[in-house]
Predict the 3D structure of the following.
Amino acid sequence: MDAPKRFTDQDIVNHGGDYLRIYAERRELIYDPPLWMARGLQETASGYGKRLNSGLKISFNGKLYRIYTTVFSNVGSSWFTVRGRKIYVS
């Protein structure tokens, strides 16, 4: 298994304004689910929500950050927050 990538500010792509994104492959992230998720439980009954735990972490500027997912209908966005900045993960 490959070691997770250590992302930095230089990996951020700015798509205009406050829309920041990091492009990452699944193998570059760390799978570290909370115990309830590892046991197969869901965070919400519907599976939808604004801030759902993805079970993944990203190494960014030397720290690990939890990746969250916003899911409504059939659309989802993954992101993490650093010092008030929301950074999307693709």
About this structure: The mean pLDDT is 93. Residues 79 and 88 are 4 Å apart (CA to CA). Strands lie at 6-7, 13-14, 20-22, 30-31, 49-60, 63-72, 75-82, 85-89. The first helix runs from residue 35 to 38.
